[in-house]
Amino acid sequence: MSDRKKTNKQTHTQTLLNSRITILKYLFSIILMILGRRSAGSNKMLFCGLLELLVIWMLTEVIRSFRVRAVVNGILMLLLNAQMLILWFGGDYISLVMLTNLDNVRDLSGKIVIYILGIVITLVFSFYPPARLLDLRKGKDGDDRICRSSASLLLSAVLCAELLFTLIYGNLHSPLFAYWRLGAEAKEAARVRKELESIENCTADFYRKGISCASVEKPDTLGEKPNIVLILTEGLSEHIVKDERGIMPNAAALEEKSISFSNYYNHTFATYRGISGQLYSGFQLDNYDSNSLIGIQNLLADQGYTTSFINTEPNLVPFASYLQEMGFDEVIGEPGHGYSGPSGSMTDKEAYEELLKQVEEKHAAGQPFFTAIYTFGTHASFDSPDQKFGDGSQSELNKFYNADYWLGVFIEKIEASPAFENTIIVFTADHATYADLYYNEAFPEYKRANPSID
């Protein structure tokens, strides 16, 4: 075989290999879209994603320069694939709230290996230089005008189809248009932030001398200043407590014998805003904003209460600093203590043991107290470190069952303690359960319009 024929054969083999890998590159994106559809439950998102993948493919076929084609295709494929990866794992496209919580990414350590593997594979497929897949039939002058003309016609047709889809259903389903919405969110947040810098102090507008809504008569068994324990459970929706499978039987039993409030929707997300919203009844623009309103802890301190917050993530410096600025007399939880939860956090077992210890110590001191705690073990991506639900195959169910188990142990012990005689216990959450991939698998029948609101 002549050298020329060998070269032609090698070139043909390489071209064929590149074409097959390029097909795999696009198939990978389609698989991500199907997985995202399973998580978000939206056929419109799947269809719109397929249209935009076709646009990227046709645009790639039109570009003549290999380098320009590789760069343009790589960037656009990364933008598309990133949205689909987030949609699969997180149930929604990338939002400003997600980005503002990136400095707390270690809170997702429960599935960190899966997340990193997904990111690496996505980067590899996105930036692999694509081959041109359409038949490159040459014109008489040796160029590829026929190919590019066909690609241009197909590109125009797909763009028209997406325009029609957008006119009918709007742009909320578009993965690429979601970046424009992300920019709009950031711009609006910056506008509000700038407006707040120049606004006069309006905290007086929020002040109320009393409670105008319906209240419950205080039982005679409670003293004039009963102790108050506030339990803020990480990401807990009411339907999980009421689930027929009995995932949280102790919380359900507690609800039955307590004053229960229904139709209470979480007003903000995520944890930083959620805790602040619960304590102050006010929305917080950014995670680390200090709150100049009057919180429950401030009101009770004025009534002679000692106030404390148990920090279950003492090694997370931003969270510890955030709690310190809330005006509690004491923030409990030392960094480097050696707790056995993720990143040195307290497990729910350790959290409830610490809460019981603090309640009994403060009761013995003889002064009315307000003690709050944020339990961390039900965070997105976590599994239970000890108690398992059923056969233990679903981490999403395990973590709620585990939290409920240790809540039950705490309630049993506190009810047998002298500290319980003059104590009110409030069991609630920082915000609803985030509807990510694992949530949707565990609760397939429970559909939500927004993954962060319930």
Structure write-up:
The structure is a single chain. The protein has 454 residues and is an alpha/beta fold. The protein folds into two domains: 8-189, no CATH class; 217-442, Alkaline Phosphatase, subunit A. 51% of the residues lie in helices and 6% in strands. The protein has 15 helices and five strands. It has helices at 3-40, 43-62, 66-90, 96-100, 112-127, 145-169, 177-198, 238-241, 249-256, 271-280, 296-302, 317-324, 348-365, 395-415, 437-442; strands at residues 227-233, 306-310, 330-332, 369-375, 423-429. The chain has a five-stranded parallel sheet, with helices on both faces. Helix 2 runs antiparallel to helix 3 and helix 3 packs antiparallel against helix 5.
Could you say which structural class the secondary elements and strand pairing correspond to? alpha/beta
* Name of the CATH homologous superfamily of the largest domain: Alkaline Phosphatase, subunit A
Proportion of residues in β-strands: 5-15%
Q: Tally of extended strands?
A: 5
Key phrases:
454 residues; alpha/beta; Alkaline Phosphatase, subunit A; 2 domains; five-stranded parallel β-sheet; 15 helices; 5 strands; 51% helix; elongated
Helices and strands, with pairings:
Elements: H1 3-40, H2 43-62, H3 66-90, H4 96-100, H5 112-127, H6 145-169, H7 177-198, E1 227-233, H8 238-241, H9 249-256, H10 271-280, H11 296-302, E2 306-310, H12 317-324, E3 330-332, H13 348-365, E4 369-375, H14 395-415, E5 423-429, H15 437-442
Parallel strand pairs: 1-4, 1-5, 2-3, 2-4
Give a quick precis of the structure.
The chain has 454 residues and is of the alpha/beta class.
